[in-house]
């Protein structure tokens, strides 16, 4: 920073105007000036106390020739010189232009400054401070004299004079040389600057103005190009439109100008073809019109439905209450499911315990019957062989067989006494079920059964009635159906209710035994009545959706009752027991006939049940039927053990035959005829009849066989011959009638004829009557 003595404002203005020239002139001999004095741009304004400084913070701008970086000061230092010029009255036109040499020096100095960078700024500023103190600033007269001498020297081209007389002339020549590029000196004639000469304020202002002008010119050129391009596009568009209009006008003109060629011949007009085409077109239009009408009607219905829905939604009040109901129903169902999931394991354990107890009892009866049959048959075989008897007329019997025989006889005596007390005198030996338990076994069974039933009562003892009472549960869903039927049916509740009620119904079925005549019927159970009431309440609603609730009971039967009934048939049912068979048939009729959702509906579970019934009866025929054949000498005596055993086995087989045919109406006729007639009658019962002596006993047995046959098999009045499976039986009847007609039992022949008539063996009966001249029996045969 350099300090100088204060001068008045005008003197500083004059000095600033002349200092530009003084910077370019060499120092005269004898003077102490070594460096040019700082220009007015480096001085402070008058208020600054005459202090000169490098003011402001440098900033970066572009030079007029694009030379690297130019460091410029702040606006305050830049505005100092113009204000000084304005104060001194110096006009712009009087400003001395910078020569070409000075411009080159300025450019060289700026390039050196760029190379030196910021590191030289601090050193140059210190040098300027030291030199400024020794510089003596010349006055205005001295500067004018130096300017004239320099101009004269340039005119003479030999030296630079300090005489200022011809300064103006030299200055003018300098301007001309600048304008003429050919007058520029060669590179070796140019002066080489050895000192750094900073640009003056005017030079920087000129450069900035040039930069602004160039930028403005570039922007204006770009705008001009853009305008030119837009105008070109507009001209193209206008040209295309004009050409199109010309083409259209030309085509219109040509079409107008074109004349009809009379030389062209057309086919004759056929009115039928035109009429046909018009009719076809009319038909298409009519079809289109009808399709549009259908679409219109559909849209009208949609609009009505939408309006109705909107009205229902708008008219439905208490939406908050509806939402509350749905939330409460959701929570209730979730809690119900959680409760049932927790209890289902306990329910299954109780069911398994009861099933195991009943299975143990059934297996006990079956094993005892088979063991007794085996030991008694063995005993009779030993008795019939002479070689097995001892010398004293007795044969040896092992202790176990003897004990079994005594046990069998003891039970028979007790049953006989019980029948006498009840007045049943028509009982046949062998038709008893023989399912009595000893007192000890009965006590043990009842105790185990009581424990299981106690566990059954404890299953839901810690559960609220709203979650274990079927009637209360169905009441919840009934409220839903009454309040919001649409959402109720859309949720398919009729499919969910059977699944929800399954565990609760199974608990009530733990004590249910369909093989006992005194067991509670399905219709008397609480769950059955509750479900029926729920279904009956939906009858009031006659909509199509309401019919889905009528299938709830049938679904429960298929999903819950039928599988349990199938287990009883496969593992617990004894087909030889008439009481069990009768009770089972009663329950099956309720399930298979009365509660089917539609006619002839047979679900998979029901098919499985029927298959299980058939398989169980086949197994009974193969495992439990045994009719031995003994010599006639052994069976002629009705009191002999062989005769009694054979009679018991025949009546046991006939009992199974009757039990099988009791399934008429539930099983198909083909199945019953194959099982009852083909496997049991023809294979076992007829063999026993053929081995017997014809007489009243044989006729009685034949009457019992015919009584077991279903009447619907012979309802066809046009039948003259019986069903094929009875051919062997009919042949045996005719054979017996021939023998009896020649014996003392001639009256039994009429009974045989009646049997033939009953089973529709009319042709055989008529032939027999005619052959034996039994005219009094012709009235038994009804002629069509």
Write down the overall mean pLDDT. 75
Question: C-alpha Rg, in Å?
Answer: 67 Å
Task: Estimate what percentage of residues fall within beta strands.
Answer: under 5%
Number of strands: 4
Secondary structure category: mainly alpha
Say what oligomer this is.
Answer: single chain
What summary fits the major beta sheet?
Answer: 2 strands, antiparallel
Q: Total helix count?
A: 27
The rough form would be described as: elongated
* Poorly predicted residue ranges: 1-91, 93-134, 159-190
Strand order of the largest sheet: 1-2
Please give the alpha-carbon distance between the first and last residues: 156 Å
Helix content: 55-70%
Biased composition (Basic residues): 1-10, 57-68
InterPro entries: GCFC2-like, GCFC_dom
Protein name: GC-rich sequence DNA-binding factor 2 isoform 1
GO biological process, one term: mRNA splicing, via spliceosome
Explain the overall architecture.
With 784 residues, the protein is mostly helical. The chain has a domain at 625-783. Helix content is 65%, strand content 1%. The chain has 27 helices and four strands. It has a two-stranded antiparallel ribbon with strand order 1-2. A two-stranded antiparallel ribbon has the order 3-4. α18 packs parallel to α20. It starts with a strand and ends in a 13-residue tail after the last helix.
């Amino acid at each position: 920073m350099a300090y100088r003595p204060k001068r008045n404002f005008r003197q500083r203005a004059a000095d600033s105007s002349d200092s530009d020239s003084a910077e370019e002139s060499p120092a005269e001999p004898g003077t102490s000036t070594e460096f040019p004095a700082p220009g007015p741009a480096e001085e402070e304004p008058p208020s600054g106390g005459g202090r000169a400084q490098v003011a402001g913070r440098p900033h970066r701008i572009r030079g007029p020739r694009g030379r690297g970086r130019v460091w410029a000061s702040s606006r305050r230092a830049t505005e100092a010189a113009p204000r000084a010029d304005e104060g001194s009255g110096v006009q712009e036109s009087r400003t001395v232009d910078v020569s070409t040499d000075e411009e080159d020096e300025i450019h060289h100095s700026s390039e050196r400054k760029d190379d030196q960078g910021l590191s030289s700024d601090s050193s140059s500023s210190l040098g300027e401070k030291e030199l400024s103190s020794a510089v003596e600033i010349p006055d205005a007269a001295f500067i004018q004299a130096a300017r004239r001498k320099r101009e004269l020297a340039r005119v003479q081209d030999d030296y630079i004079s300090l005489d200022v007389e011809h300064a103006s002339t030299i200055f003018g020549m300098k301007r001309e040389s600048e304008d003429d590029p050919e007058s520029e000196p060669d590179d070796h004639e140019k002066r080489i600057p050895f000192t750094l000469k900073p640009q003056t304020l005017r030079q920087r202002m000129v450069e900035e103005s040039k930069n602004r002008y160039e930028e403005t010119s570039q922007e204006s050129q770009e705008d001009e190009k853009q305008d030119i391009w837009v105008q070109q596009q507009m001209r193209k568009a206008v040209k295309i439109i004009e050409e199109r209009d010309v083409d259209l006008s030309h085509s219109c003109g040509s079409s107008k100008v074109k004349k009809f060629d009379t030389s062209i011949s057309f086919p004759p007009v056929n009115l039928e073809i035109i009429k046909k085409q018009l009719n076809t077109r009319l038909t298409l239009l009519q079809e289109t019109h009808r399709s549009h009408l259908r679409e219109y009607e559909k849209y009208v219905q949609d609009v009505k439905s939408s309006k109705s829905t909107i009205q229902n939604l708008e008219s439905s009040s208490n939406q908050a209450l509806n939402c509350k109901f749905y939330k409460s129903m959701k929570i209730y169902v979730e809690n119900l499911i959680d409760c049932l999931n927790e209890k289902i394991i306990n329910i299954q354990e109780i069911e398994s315990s009861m099933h195991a107890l009943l299975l143990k009892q059934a297996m006990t009866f079956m094993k005892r019957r088979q063991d007794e049959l085996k030991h008694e048959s063995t005993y009779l075989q030993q008795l019939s062989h002479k070689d097995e008897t001892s010398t004293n007329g007795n044969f040896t019997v092992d202790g176990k067989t003897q004990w079994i025989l005594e046990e069998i006889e003891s039970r028979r005596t007790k049953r006989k006494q019980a029948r006498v007390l009840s007045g049943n005198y028509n009982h046949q030996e062998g038709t008893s079920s023989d399912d009595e338990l000893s007192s000890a076994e009965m006590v043990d069974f009842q105790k185990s059964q009581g424990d299981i039933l106690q566990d059954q009562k404890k299953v839901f003892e810690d559960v609220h009635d709203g979650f274990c009472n079927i009637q209360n549960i169905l009441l919840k869903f009934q409220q839903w159906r009454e309040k919001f039927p649409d959402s109720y049916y859309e949720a398919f509740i009729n499919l969910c209710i059977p699944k929800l009620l399954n565990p609760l119904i199974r608990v009530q079925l733990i004590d249910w035994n369909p093989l006992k005549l005194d067991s509670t019927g399905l219709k008397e159970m609480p769950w059955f009545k509750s479900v029926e009431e729920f279904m009956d309440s939906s009858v009031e609603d006659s909509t199509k959706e309401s019919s889905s609730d009528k299938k709830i009971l049938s679904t429960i039967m298929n999903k819950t009752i039928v599988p349990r009934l199938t287990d009883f048939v496969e593992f617990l049912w004894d087909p030889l027991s008439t009481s069990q068979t009768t009770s089972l048939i009663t329950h099956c009729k309720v399930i298979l006939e009365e509660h089917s959702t539609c006619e002839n509906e047979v679900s998979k579970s029901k098919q499985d049940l029927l298959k299980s019934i058939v398989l169980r009866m086949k197994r009974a025929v193969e495992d439990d039927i045994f009719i031995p054949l003994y010599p006639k000498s052994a069976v002629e005596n009705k009191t002999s053990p062989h005769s009694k055993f054979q009679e018991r086995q025949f009546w046991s087989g006939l009992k199974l035959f009757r039990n099988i045919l009791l399934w008429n109406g539930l099983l198909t006729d083909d199945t019953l005829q194959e099982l009852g007639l083909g496997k049991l009658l023809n294979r076992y019962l007829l063999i026993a009849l053929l081995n017997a002596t014809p007489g009243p006993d044989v006729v009685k047995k034949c009457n019992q066989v015919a009584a077991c046959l279903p009447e619907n098999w012979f309802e066809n009045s046009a039948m003259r011959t019986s069903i094929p499976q009875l051919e062997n039986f009919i042949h045996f009847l005719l054979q017996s009638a021939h023998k009896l007609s020649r014996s003392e039992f001639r009256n039994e022949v009429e009974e045989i004829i009646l049997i033939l008539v009953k089973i529709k063996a009319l042709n055989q009966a008529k032939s027999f009557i005619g052959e034996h001249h039994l005219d009094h029996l012709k009235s038994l045969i009804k002629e069509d």
